[in-house]
Amino acid sequence: xxxxxxxxxxxxxxxxxxxxxxxxxxxxxxxxxxxxxxxxxxxxxxxxxxxxxxxxxxxxxxxxxxxxxxxxxxxxxxxxxxxxxxxxxxxxxxxxxxxxxxxxxxxxxxxxxxxxxxxxxxxxxxxxxxxxxxxxxxxxxxxxxxxxxxxxxxxxxxxxxxxxxxxxxxxxxxxxxxxxxxxxxxxxxxxxxxxxxxxxxxxxxxxxxxxxxxxxxxxxxxxxxxxxxxxxxxxxxxxxxxxxxxxxxxxxxxxxxxxxxxxxxxxxxxxxxxxxxxxxxxxxxxxxxxxxxxxxxxxxxxxxxxxxxxxxxxxxxxxxxxxxxxxxxxxxxxxxxxxxxxxxxxxxxxxxxxxxxxxxxxxxxxxxxxxxxxxxxxxxxxxxxxxxxxxxxxxxxxxxxxxxxxxxxxxxxxxxxxxxxxxxxxxxxxxxxxxxxxxxxxxxxxxxxxxxxxxxxxxxxxxxxxxxxxxxxxxxxxxxxxxxxxxxxxxxxxxxxxxxxxxxxxx
Length: 507
What we know:
- By secondary structure, the protein is α+β, with helices and mostly antiparallel strands.
- It has helices at residues 21-31, 37-56, 61-71, 97-109, 129-139, 143-163, 177-188, 193-207, 221-241, 257-260, 298-313, 329-334, 351-354, 358-368, 385-392, 400-406, 449-460, 466-477; strands at residues 2-7, 117-118, 122-123, 268-273, 320-327, 394-398, 418-424, 429-434.
- The strands form three sheets. The chain has a four-stranded mixed sheet. The protein has a two-stranded antiparallel sheet with strand order 1-4. Strands 2-3 form a two-stranded antiparallel ribbon.
- Helix 2 (37-56) packs across helix 4, helix 3 packs antiparallel against helix 4 and helix 5 packs antiparallel against helix 6.
- The radius of gyration is 22 Å and the shape is globular.
């Protein structure tokens, strides 16, 4: 690995293009070799994971809306290319790839239930897969090309999230997704470094937005935001392939991202990148979710499953005076009481808000001794007096040691959990702590292929029949060796198809 230093350059400094971060990312896409076997195996796991969570969300309103929009942009296009599949629609029905990326991206993101990588910033690197798959289907790339492209996109995403914090300046994390999708598409299509460089610049420029989409009253845009980034990145690559350029230097320029939206003209960032020709392996640093909630609550749910029976034995929720979670800065300020968001304690809050409220998530997990993507949220989970009282008794505080571990470069020390102190009405306490979620690679029950397949089948149960589940899994498990014609099988369709809304928009 190399540590690429990124800083603002005045216009008269004339920073060489080959020294710009966007160029280095484009060069990575152009030179990354075929993926290692363990990386290819993880790519397959994440494809299965994405499709499972997309399947479970098919009848949710944001997903139905996005699917309807995509369906109004059907292929084949005038170019004669094949188009791309949309989860929930029949396999022969194809749409323009940017719209397939849009619909599938929303389906993958809606339940907040796929993979994550946390470092200087946040990310869901599985958001790269829908646009890459859509373009691969549309342009006739094979499974090996798609596998390599996904590995490259993950590499870029992890590098950016490791080196550059957007959250401190309230920039939404999808500003790292646009460039990673563009780089992955460059690898998929074997584009020259120059073309991918221009596409990365365009993608970053057009996907930089504020973080209000994940703050306060959180709406369905939380699911749409990464899908929008994927769609915009496809369009950026298309323009770059037609010879159109981007603002440059996009990161380092005097009026660029770092100078005005991030740490300012004196900032220096370090972005870790593979050496030229070094294989892309960063996907192995990322991790998926066992529970349908924001990643920093995953370990909290697992410790709550342990604490729930102990609280029940002590007299139940009525015996609890207060619960304090001692945790990292990020957890406290993003999904905890340190956010200052009253909505995180509001019984009328949206599902999107509740899956970013660790007090709510902990309360439900304590009472139910588990957490479920439907049964743990209203209206399925009734907000009774017991739940609301316990929820409002929970708060978070930042602990410097948990913050240090959150940012530790040592994977064995890195932690996303915290220490829970339960104070009972009789003055006694119950304490427990957890460093990482059970499903994390360093957790009590790390996810492997069997767990990804089980998660897919659990989420598909009642939505897809057994034959459709088997058909998809057979195709997904053979991804690295699939022919271009077989990539169309990497989708799922319920018997009778998924529904569409009655309303109509512009199209």
